[in-house]
Amino acid sequence: MEKRSILIVDDDISLLKSLTEILQLEGYNVDTARTGREAIEKSKTQFYDLTLLDIKLPDMEGTELLPLINGHIPQTVKIIITGYPSTENAVKAINQGAAAYIIKPVDPQELKRTIKEKLKEQSETDQMMEQKVAEWIETRAEKLST
After folding, report:
1. How far from each other are the two terminal CA atoms of the chain, in whole angstroms?
2. Number of domains in the chain
3. Can you tell me the distance from the alpha carbon of 60 to that of 64, in angstroms, rounded to the nearest whole number?
4. How far apart are CA 103 and CA 89, in angstroms?
5. Pairwise CA distance, residues 5 & 24, whole Å
6. Does residue 142 lie within any of the structural domains?
7. Which residues contact 23 (CB under 8 A, 6 or more apart)?
8. What are the pLDDT tens digits along the chain (146 aa)?
């Protein structure tokens, strides 16, 4: 099976390094971005199965970045990571398309579990969509042949 790819967007270099190591040990391809702008540029040319976004970036809020990333790779799973938890941020993140909201300091076990769970949900959704498309094509082919 093909390795899943993850983009980590955070301006904290030590966090980027530690999360990269943790996720690479789990078998993921990992790319990083330190600003929202860098993340947008990378998402224009590269597909990521999952994106981890810090809520506070030097050039924009993670909640502002969510719909921009979604515009380039709508099927990517987006997870917000924050050191500034609040109900308002959590609600805004979920409303902007985040699949999960993780509070810093990040518990590596919780992060790995959440990523695995969200990627499994993504795969199941993709399989269901492929099945629906195949059924639709089959139905159309039958109608055209009669």
Report:
1. 40
2. 1
3. 7
4. 11
5. 10
6. no
7. 6, 8, 30, 112, 115
8. 578 999 999 999 999 999 999 999 999 999 999 999 999 999 999 999 999 999 999 999 888 999 988 888 888 999 999 888 888 888 888 888 899 999 999 999 999 999 999 999 887 877 777 778 778 888 878 778 76
Helices (H), the chain: 13-25, 36-45, 62-72, 87-95, 108-145
Record the tokens describing residue 83, joined without a space.
Answer: 């050191």
Q: Is residue 96, in this structure, part of any structural domain at all?
A: yes
Return d(Cα 10, Cα 70) in angstroms, integer.
Answer: 17
User: Is residue 13 in a domain?
Assistant: yes
CB 53 within 8 A of CB 66: yes
CATH of the domain at 51: 3.40.50.2300
Q: CA–CA distance from 125 to each of 37, 70, 131 (Å)?
A: 29, 17, 10
pLDDT at position 1: 55
| Measured distance CA(40)–CA(23) in Å, rounded | 21
